[in-house]
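Suppose a colleague, Dr. K., hands you the sequence of a protein chain of 82 amino acids and asks what its three-dimensional shape might be. Before reaching for any lab equipment, you can write down a predicted structure in token form. Begin with the sequence itself:
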Amino acid sequence: MILSEMKEQALNQEFYHYYNRLSKVQKESMLSLVKSFLEKSDEKTKRVSVKQYNKELEEAEKRIGEGEYVTHESLKAEAKKW
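The predicted structure, expressed as tokens, is then:
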């Protein structure tokens, strides 16, 4: 068995150990949380079309050409003020 599969199996066992100790209300709450987490994760990983990607690149290049950007040095200086 591959090490990563063993680690996943151990995680699953630990998850089920704790899951089985939850009350019905806690399980329902946890299910809602997991669904919410996955929905947000799916939103972040949606792919854009090549046309949309190229449009975003053109817009970014235009902003850079107009001087609308932050240099690494200026960002480091700003971060020191936080």
